[in-house]
Amino acid sequence: MDPSPPASDAENKAALRRQHRRLRREHVAALPERMRALLFLRPPVQVARAIPDGATVGLYHPHPHEAPTLSYARWLYENGRRVALPWFAERDAPMEFRRWADPFDLEALEAGPFGIPQPNSDAPVAEPSVLFVPLIAFTAEGGRLGQGGGHYDRWLAAHPETVAIGLGWDCQLAEALPTEAHDRPLDAIVTPTRLFEGNP
Fold first, then answer.
1. What percent of the chain has pLDDT over 70?
2. Ramachandran angles phi, psi of 121, nearest 5°
3. Mean pLDDT, rounded, of the chain
Protein backbone atom coordinates (compact mmCIF):
# COMPACT_ATOMS: atom_id res chain seq x y z
CA MET A 1 0.00 0.00 0.00
CA ASP A 2 1.33 3.41 -0.98
CA PRO A 3 1.71 5.50 2.21
CA SER A 4 2.01 8.80 0.36
CA PRO A 5 -1.05 11.08 0.58
CA PRO A 6 -3.07 11.72 -2.60
CA ALA A 7 -1.99 14.70 -4.65
CA SER A 8 -4.03 17.87 -4.21
CA ASP A 9 -5.76 19.62 -7.10
CA ALA A 10 -3.06 22.29 -6.94
CA GLU A 11 -0.31 19.67 -7.23
CA ASN A 12 -2.13 17.94 -10.08
CA LYS A 13 -2.52 21.24 -11.92
CA ALA A 14 1.15 22.10 -11.40
CA ALA A 15 2.20 18.74 -12.84
CA LEU A 16 -0.15 19.15 -15.79
CA ARG A 17 1.20 22.63 -16.47
CA ARG A 18 4.75 21.29 -16.61
CA GLN A 19 3.71 18.45 -18.91
CA HIS A 20 1.68 20.59 -21.30
CA ARG A 21 4.20 23.42 -21.38
CA ARG A 22 6.80 20.89 -22.50
CA LEU A 23 4.48 19.43 -25.16
CA ARG A 24 3.61 22.90 -26.41
CA ARG A 25 7.24 24.01 -26.47
CA GLU A 26 8.29 20.93 -28.45
CA HIS A 27 5.37 21.31 -30.86
CA VAL A 28 6.06 24.97 -31.60
CA ALA A 29 9.81 24.38 -31.93
CA ALA A 30 9.08 21.87 -34.70
CA LEU A 31 7.09 24.43 -36.72
CA PRO A 32 8.87 26.80 -39.11
CA GLU A 33 8.53 30.30 -37.64
CA ARG A 34 6.77 31.69 -40.74
CA MET A 35 4.17 28.94 -40.56
CA ARG A 36 3.09 29.66 -36.97
CA ALA A 37 1.20 32.87 -37.73
CA LEU A 38 -0.24 31.41 -40.94
CA LEU A 39 -2.03 28.77 -38.86
CA PHE A 40 -3.97 31.54 -37.07
CA LEU A 41 -4.55 34.01 -39.91
CA ARG A 42 -8.17 34.87 -39.06
CA PRO A 43 -11.00 33.56 -36.88
CA PRO A 44 -12.91 30.60 -38.33
CA VAL A 45 -15.97 31.63 -40.31
CA GLN A 46 -18.39 30.38 -37.63
CA VAL A 47 -16.60 32.42 -34.97
CA ALA A 48 -16.25 35.55 -37.11
CA ARG A 49 -19.97 35.51 -37.92
CA ALA A 50 -20.80 35.40 -34.22
CA ILE A 51 -18.84 38.62 -33.51
CA PRO A 52 -21.10 41.61 -34.28
CA ASP A 53 -19.81 44.56 -36.28
CA GLY A 54 -18.40 47.17 -33.94
CA ALA A 55 -17.95 44.69 -31.08
CA THR A 56 -14.93 44.99 -28.80
CA VAL A 57 -12.86 41.82 -28.88
CA GLY A 58 -10.26 41.00 -26.24
CA LEU A 59 -7.05 39.29 -27.28
CA TYR A 60 -3.81 38.50 -25.48
CA HIS A 61 -0.28 39.40 -26.52
CA PRO A 62 1.32 35.94 -26.88
CA HIS A 63 4.69 34.71 -25.75
CA PRO A 64 6.63 32.63 -28.32
CA HIS A 65 4.94 29.30 -27.50
CA GLU A 66 1.34 30.48 -27.27
CA ALA A 67 -1.04 30.48 -30.22
CA PRO A 68 -0.31 33.76 -32.06
CA THR A 69 -2.92 36.51 -32.09
CA LEU A 70 -1.49 39.39 -34.14
CA SER A 71 -3.12 38.24 -37.40
CA TYR A 72 -6.46 37.90 -35.56
CA ALA A 73 -6.08 41.42 -34.17
CA ARG A 74 -5.40 42.90 -37.61
CA TRP A 75 -8.23 40.95 -39.27
CA LEU A 76 -10.70 42.07 -36.61
CA TYR A 77 -9.54 45.69 -36.93
CA GLU A 78 -9.86 45.61 -40.72
CA ASN A 79 -13.32 44.06 -40.45
CA GLY A 80 -14.99 46.62 -38.22
CA ARG A 81 -14.30 45.26 -34.73
CA ARG A 82 -12.40 47.01 -31.97
CA VAL A 83 -9.43 45.29 -30.33
CA ALA A 84 -8.48 45.34 -26.64
CA LEU A 85 -5.57 43.83 -24.73
CA PRO A 86 -5.06 43.04 -21.03
CA TRP A 87 -3.68 45.92 -18.99
CA PHE A 88 -2.15 45.86 -15.51
CA ALA A 89 -1.31 48.89 -13.40
CA GLU A 90 1.09 46.72 -11.35
CA ARG A 91 1.75 43.03 -10.75
CA ASP A 92 -0.82 42.57 -7.98
CA ALA A 93 -3.49 44.76 -9.62
CA PRO A 94 -6.58 43.23 -11.21
CA MET A 95 -6.53 42.68 -14.96
CA GLU A 96 -8.31 45.30 -17.05
CA PHE A 97 -8.69 45.65 -20.80
CA ARG A 98 -7.72 48.72 -22.80
CA ARG A 99 -8.22 49.57 -26.44
CA TRP A 100 -5.47 48.88 -28.96
CA ALA A 101 -6.52 51.50 -31.46
CA ASP A 102 -4.44 50.16 -34.37
CA PRO A 103 -2.96 46.61 -34.25
CA PHE A 104 -0.63 47.55 -37.10
CA ASP A 105 1.06 50.02 -34.72
CA LEU A 106 3.20 47.87 -32.43
CA GLU A 107 4.88 50.99 -31.04
CA ALA A 108 1.58 51.96 -29.40
CA LEU A 109 2.25 49.23 -26.83
CA GLU A 110 4.51 49.41 -23.79
CA ALA A 111 5.93 46.77 -21.48
CA GLY A 112 3.58 45.99 -18.60
CA PRO A 113 4.59 44.89 -15.09
CA PHE A 114 4.89 41.25 -16.26
CA GLY A 115 7.06 42.25 -19.21
CA ILE A 116 4.18 41.65 -21.66
CA PRO A 117 3.32 44.41 -24.15
CA GLN A 118 0.11 46.23 -23.26
CA PRO A 119 -1.64 49.45 -24.34
CA ASN A 120 -0.41 52.73 -22.90
CA SER A 121 -1.96 53.90 -19.64
CA ASP A 122 -3.94 56.61 -21.44
CA ALA A 123 -5.66 54.10 -23.77
CA PRO A 124 -9.44 53.90 -23.18
CA VAL A 125 -10.70 51.20 -20.81
CA ALA A 126 -12.68 48.51 -22.65
CA GLU A 127 -15.00 45.64 -21.76
CA PRO A 128 -14.81 42.98 -24.48
CA SER A 129 -18.00 41.14 -25.38
CA VAL A 130 -15.86 38.38 -26.91
CA LEU A 131 -12.57 37.33 -25.36
CA PHE A 132 -9.92 35.07 -26.90
CA VAL A 133 -8.23 33.37 -23.96
CA PRO A 134 -4.72 31.87 -23.74
CA LEU A 135 -4.33 28.40 -22.30
CA ILE A 136 -1.84 25.70 -21.42
CA ALA A 137 -4.27 22.82 -21.96
CA PHE A 138 -7.95 22.34 -22.77
CA THR A 139 -10.60 19.65 -23.08
CA ALA A 140 -13.03 19.18 -25.94
CA GLU A 141 -15.82 20.13 -23.53
CA GLY A 142 -14.33 23.55 -22.80
CA GLY A 143 -12.19 22.88 -19.74
CA ARG A 144 -9.16 25.16 -19.52
CA LEU A 145 -5.85 25.01 -17.70
CA GLY A 146 -4.31 28.48 -17.49
CA GLN A 147 -1.03 29.86 -16.19
CA GLY A 148 -2.23 29.69 -12.59
CA GLY A 149 -2.50 33.39 -11.83
CA GLY A 150 -6.29 33.40 -12.04
CA HIS A 151 -6.46 36.71 -13.93
CA TYR A 152 -8.79 35.44 -16.64
CA ASP A 153 -10.89 33.40 -14.20
CA ARG A 154 -11.53 36.48 -12.06
CA TRP A 155 -12.23 38.73 -15.04
CA LEU A 156 -14.67 36.26 -16.59
CA ALA A 157 -16.40 35.72 -13.24
CA ALA A 158 -17.02 39.48 -13.09
CA HIS A 159 -18.21 39.52 -16.73
CA PRO A 160 -20.29 36.36 -17.15
CA GLU A 161 -21.95 37.65 -20.31
CA THR A 162 -18.63 37.72 -22.21
CA VAL A 163 -18.11 34.92 -24.73
CA ALA A 164 -14.82 33.17 -23.91
CA ILE A 165 -12.97 31.40 -26.73
CA GLY A 166 -9.71 29.55 -26.21
CA LEU A 167 -6.86 29.63 -28.71
CA GLY A 168 -4.36 26.78 -28.70
CA TRP A 169 -2.36 24.20 -30.58
CA ASP A 170 -3.80 20.74 -31.22
CA CYS A 171 -1.17 19.22 -28.92
CA GLN A 172 -2.76 21.08 -25.97
CA LEU A 173 -5.92 18.94 -26.06
CA ALA A 174 -6.27 16.86 -22.88
CA GLU A 175 -8.74 14.06 -22.17
CA ALA A 176 -9.57 15.54 -18.77
CA LEU A 177 -8.45 18.36 -16.49
CA PRO A 178 -9.07 18.97 -12.77
CA THR A 179 -11.67 21.65 -12.22
CA GLU A 180 -12.55 23.90 -9.31
CA ALA A 181 -15.68 25.88 -8.54
CA HIS A 182 -14.27 29.09 -10.03
CA ASP A 183 -13.22 27.45 -13.33
CA ARG A 184 -15.51 28.63 -16.12
CA PRO A 185 -15.80 26.39 -19.19
CA LEU A 186 -14.87 28.01 -22.48
CA ASP A 187 -17.61 28.58 -25.04
CA ALA A 188 -15.35 27.30 -27.83
CA ILE A 189 -11.71 26.48 -28.56
CA VAL A 190 -9.94 27.19 -31.85
CA THR A 191 -6.89 25.18 -32.97
CA PRO A 192 -5.19 25.13 -36.39
CA THR A 193 -7.30 22.12 -37.44
CA ARG A 194 -10.53 22.23 -35.42
CA LEU A 195 -13.19 24.31 -33.78
CA PHE A 196 -14.35 22.71 -30.54
CA GLU A 197 -17.80 23.67 -29.32
CA GLY A 198 -17.02 23.90 -25.63
CA ASN A 199 -19.39 25.12 -22.91
CA PRO A 200 -22.66 23.21 -23.59
1. 93
2. -65, -20
3. 89
- Residues 6 or more apart whose CB falls under 8 angstroms from that of 127 comprise 56, 97, 159, 162
Domains of the chain (ranges, CATH numbers): 9-197 (3.40.50.10420)
Classify the phi-psi angles of 76: left when phi > 0, otherwise alpha if psi is within -120 to 50, otherwise beta. alpha
Alpha carbon distance 17, 101 (integer Å): 33
Q: What is the pLDDT of residues 72-104, one digit of tens each?
A: 999 999 999 999 999 999 999 999 999 999 999
Burial class (CB in 10 A: 0-12, 13-18, 19+), 131: buried
SS3 21: helix
Helix (H, G, I), strand (E, B), or coil: what is residue 74? helix
